[in-house]
Amino acid sequence: MDPTASRNPQKYHLQETERTYLYAGDTGSYTEGQIRNRITNDRLPLLATRIQHLLDDVTLLTNKDFLTPDCWEDGWHQLQNVEVDREFQDAPVWLPQTELTGHTQIGFVVGQFTRDLISNLGPSYFPERLNWGFLLGTAGQPQGAYKIEHRNITDILNGLNRRFSERKNAAAEQSISSEKARLEREITQAYDSQTLSENSVIQEFSEAAEEARTRYKHRSTNTDHPDFFQLLDKVITASPNEIRAIAELTERIHRSVREVNATHRKKVAATDAFRALYNAEGQQSSDDISTIIGSSKGLVSFLLETLAGGKDNALWTEHPLVEETAAGRRGRQWETTPFGDLVGHCLFDEHKRGQVYDTMANFLTQEQPESEFADLIQQNLKTDL
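and the corresponding structure tokens:
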């Protein structure tokens, strides 16, 4: 180091026109050849000197205690906010919000700077050698102080292993969260379309679950990450039986909607009688419903008997939409069943239909969905979730 050597810092810096060209390709009033020649002939030869002068300055300032927190308090705060522009990185380093603080931020910036510089060597760039040099630079000791150096480096490596394990766990949790959100979106969209059959929903969800398990199993083991499979189970909370139960209920609702729409008696639609009972939200007599829809009591009773499974309809015999409760002064009394309530929501109320299908989708990826329809859906599942 020659402290008396003259310097001209202005020669080091890329000028505005050069920076604009390198950033956006804009040459301004110059030709591209002129700017490239100026960078090649005037800036690049001084880059190593520029770095050397920075190193010399830090050494000289440290030697006289100018960089202690007492002397350079504002500077240390500013240094922790220095950043490497990540705009031009093909694959920026993944950084949780809490990862870069204090000295870690400084180390990250120095590491990114060194990586950007050394990576230009291409195949002759060896990260292991680079980081070994960095480790010696930060923890190495004079000859004869091997025990101190060994302790320093061991402490650093143990700390790095701990932080790396924490980072792996954080990455796994982030991946689990992203996969869970993706599966929830896909399942919800599938239910919204109301086109999935029992077989297709089982196949598609099972394939997605297996894909997630296979992908993440390659990234971790029980030894490296004991909570890994517990985390994965948060994505795939539904068992195959639970998936079948949701799929079966979905298909049952679809079939009932189709069959209600297709059921008539002497030009009186079952849809009209079912809608009147659904809207009543309680018991109604055949007389009351016949008055509401403008039909005879006999036709209404026949249609409601059909929806109650009394006319040899295999679906409604096992899963009736309505049930007869009693006979009163105004005739036979009827009310909707829990399954009838679900079908009514999907048939007559577009908003509730969306909520029902969203909740059913969430049963596959949540232990207990928060929805006013969760209990109603659970009552209608053949398998308890």
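(Above: one complete record from the training split.) The longest strand covers residues 322-328.
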